[in-house]
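note to self: dont lose this again. the chain is below, predicted strucutre after it. 293 aa total, dont forget to put it in the shared folder this time
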Amino acid sequence: MKAAFLPDRGVIKVAGSDARDFLNGLVTSDLTLLRPGLGRFGALLTPQGKIYADFLITEVASGHGGGFLFDCPLALAQGFADKLGFYKLRAKVAVENLSGSLGVLAAWDGDPTVVPDLAFADPRNTALGWRIVVPEELAQKLAELIGAELVDSAAYDSHRIASGVPRGGLDFSYGDAFPHETNMDRLHGVDFDKGCYVGQEVVSRMQHRGTARTRTLRVIVDGAPPEPGTTVLAGDKPLGIMGSTSGRDGIALIRVDRAADALNAGTALSAGGIAIRLAAPDDLLPAPKQTVA
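---
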């Protein structure tokens, strides 16, 4: 088993008697079933339905103070905390940015020999393993406790890319991407049966009508990895944009309709003059319809 402390992740705490209902009315995931030891993937959206910030969230046991902890991008942590504070109005909640004292350890390729407090299985993809909220100075000790070798965060990023899970800021831009475009519907990040949340009407309409034309897809690079932001071409026609890469594995934001046409026509794909191909062409198929909220 491997573990890595992720320096790009921050931690936000929301606590108070109204915390669960307050958060559940804002974010894409259903928090009514969340309990200590479990995790959910979700996002706070803009009113236009685009991702303001995505996160993993777990509940803190009452014996440890209660409340909810968000594992979110460090670069967005303070802005995310401020946005939650903006929405709270008269709700009995307190929002704290704990990123200066707490961080996130990812562990994969096995199960912990001991499951520590503030640990939960990553709900997006079983291959991503576990997340543990912990101070950075305790990362080595905690890795030993769970039976893992502590490695550099780049090893986790390579594993994430190979697993086909996009990362905001690299594979899509915050404030400019809809949940379907980043596969949140396929990564258990949107609950279509819950009540209203910010941006819900737009997301439900995309789900109901199947109008998501762009997806982050896993690609195989047949050469030196193109730089993030490089245009992906089908022949000489733009198809999308390259995101993060590791070795031959990569993630790209792709127009699925144009990619399907290229695949059917046998047209080669490239980025920056480097040949690429879809790792899983079936990802071009529409996701099974779910009940809309």
